[in-house]
Amino acid sequence: MAEKEAAPKAEDFKEPNKATVHANPILTILLFLNTGLIGAVGYFQYTMHQKEAAETSIQDIVRAEIKEAKAAENEVTGEAKEDEGKLFPLEGFTANLAQGDGPRRYVRLEAVLKFSRDSNEEEFKARKPQIRDSIISILNSKRPADLLKVEGKQYLKEEIKAAINTFLVEGSIVDIYYVGFQIN
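^ thats the sequence. predicted structure below, dont judge the formating
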């Protein structure tokens, strides 16, 4: 037996509440204000991003210096620059990378420092803790994405050279060679 659907009665249709009727225009106004404020915040963030993108960064300056140094090196003819300088190996070490969106990552690095010919081996031995500390500090500020690219590794070399050369008295670092470089 099929049951017939009951027709709606007049009591089912109640008169709307007066507070609800008066709240709707206020909600509409608040909705438009909220939308306008979100748009304004988005606009200001976009303009700030454009200003930051237009500024030159340290990475851009270092890249330009690397290109200039390579161009100047290519112009020099005759003399072999590879024989100049002294090589000092660093013991391998492990450093945490800057926390990104993903899991904790770290880098294992083994490097050989090439000092200028006038460098003193005794100064290197005395400054070894400072050298290791500055390299670890630089690595701790890097994200894995920064170091996975060739340009990132080259920039890291230049940054390490600049940091170490600030406290060396006799001689300076000419180049850095990665013997082992692993990111986990």
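The mean pLDDT is 81.
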